[in-house]
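Now for a sample.
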Amino acid sequence: MPSEPLPPAPLAAGEPDMNEIVGSHDLLLVTLDTLRFDVAAELAEAGRTPHIARHLPGGHWEKRHAPGSFTYASHQAIFAGFLPTPAAPGPHPRLFAASFAGSETTADGTFVYDTPDLVSGLAEAGYHTVCIGGVGFFNKQGPLGSVLPGLFHESHWTPEFGVTSPASFENQVARAEQVVRQLPAEQRLFLFVNVSALHQPNWFHLPGATREAGDTRATHAAALEYVDRHIGRLFAAASSRRRCFAIVCSDHGTAYGDGGYTGHRLGHESVWTVPYAHFFLDPAEAAR
């Protein structure tokens, strides 16, 4: 006989009920592409990323495991509802999940959708979905680079948002501000931003670094400080119309000589371990 569907797990204490949030809040998802957990945690602890840290629960990033080891794989999982997983034994209830019999991570507070992916699920719930791309998998310059942005009602990418632009994030934020301004006040928004500034090349974010010396863990940290200087504008735009539920995380990390490895799309701790946070953004804060 076929097994009975598992009942949903109860909502964990302190966890948001996404069935109350979806439909009443705007939603913001920011992936800090390639950001390592150790670098993010060190900078938050040292006070070097104050604009992000003020929103982190307790001022600290949560340590999680990435759902993939490079951008395309990880975002396919994220857009299917598989956000980075808490780095502790589970199962861990998810915020979003497709309707799937037998899922052990669908809880009472999980927003469940009957579409293949979260983006279309939110669209069916009345959200206007917007992608502001960063790395090449969002550049729409070929079939592969069109898959992920093609999930959204509206998508944006220019070379000025990409990995080679020293002003990539501030350019992305300016486009996000424009998108929000042009949207009818009553329209709910799901805004996704893939931040490319952490990705190689990032040497130009550290004063005194050179192209010849290349990217290092220190230039990666400098890139995060650059993002932090501008992310307040993104948070303000996302919450300018109503309360916003924000998810900020890395899709995967990257290695800078760790154990002899460089880059990502490989199975190293520096790649699999990522920072994660979710929190609310209030319009009153955005107005300050």
